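Researcher: Let's run the pair from yesterday's discussion. Sequence first, then tokens, for each.
Model: Starting with the first of the pair.
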Amino acid sequence: MIPLYVLATVTGIGLLAGAEWPTAVRYGLAAMLALTASAHFGSRRRDLIAMVPPRLPRPDLLVTITGVAELAIAAGLLFERSAPVAAAALVVLLVAMFPANVHAVRANVGIGGRPPTPLRTRSVIQAAFVAAAIGAL
């Protein structure tokens, strides 16, 4: 839920500061991705590794790759020229990572000692992230 709050807060601040909708959303998404990427390399890394479905090889490497991808996409969203490609890449990344969210719920894997977010709630949040990425184009 915290990434959603970051997205909404930073987008709102951008709008209040006079940014156009796509720009404000891009900044909100970039802030959200910076936050989520930090988990890939910090104390929550083990939780993210546990979220990776067991049929996928090298969960540790996949978590590193997705963290780097999140940082690269965040940077791309900050520049108008690269924003469309970054937003499209974010949609692809969100869809690709969704099975990890499903696995986390089914395997009861939470983040930071909290229980996993219910799948219905996760699905709605994921759809909001995808909609925001599309809205940032």
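Model: Moving on to the second of the pair.
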Amino acid sequence: MRQKAPDFESNNSNEPEEIEQAGAICIRRSKTARPEVLLVGSRRNGRWGLPKDHIEDDEDSKSAAERGAFEEAHHRLG
């Protein structure tokens, strides 16, 4: 999933700067339990969402989504 997210902090105007982001739907399956979906909490507004990260200049959206999902899962599972 590719989206543009508003970024109000990077400029001094009231107009948001668009930042390209990519996200992933991460599902963990096991033979003994129901599938689980990875959700992350927003530090900014407290809502739940899918893991995502900004797209670096030298990568495609798939790579950015994989990196963001891995970083979130690694952070949560320690």
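Researcher: Give me one sentence on the second I can quote.
Model: Helices lie at 61-77.
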